[in-house]
Design a protein that fits this description.
This protein starts with 5 loop residues before the first strand and ends in an 8-residue tail after the last helix. With 178 residues, the chain is of the alpha/beta class. The protein has a single domain, classed as Rossmann fold (3-Layer(aba) Sandwich), CATH 3.40.50. It is globular and about 55 Å long. The strands form 2 sheets. It has a 6-stranded parallel beta sheet, sandwiched between helices. Strands 3-4 form a two-stranded antiparallel ribbon.
Amino acid sequence: MDAVPVITVTGWSNSGKTTFTTRVVELLADMGVRVGVIKHHGHKTGGVDVEGKDSWKYAQAGANPVILSASDQYAIFVSTPQGEPSRDELVAKIADDVDLVIVEGFRAEADGAVEVYRSAAGHPDPKLAPEERIALVTDNDELASQVRAEGKPVFGLDDFDAVARYFFELAGIDNGAL
């Protein structure tokens, strides 16, 4: 089996990455693509479980991993005292169960990323250098013109269908395989 395709989405905080990508994931899932998402939280959280909940109490007691199960989903909490796992290590954990992985964040570990840049977020410049960007999602006409001049695809902040098709093609997913 070939490695699962991974597409990285990045941008400044509050640029609309999650909102936009969620809509694209919805469309891909409707197309029959099994999509996994890895959301990188760039700051130390002290844990992703909720303090005071039973699963948190088990982890505090030394259980590792802790699995929280419900009738419609489950989550596995694994303590990583050796440090945060890499993007590739996380992708490997879900690769057998998906056709495509979308990663929000882990920009430094990506070979290129789709940048979401929303003018209202208040950042004067894009987050990525031109050589890091493979495509742009934006409402900024000047930036869009610059990126088009680089020969890279540009999409509007409401171009969910077009980006879903772009991701589908970028991932090289065979229509007949779905």
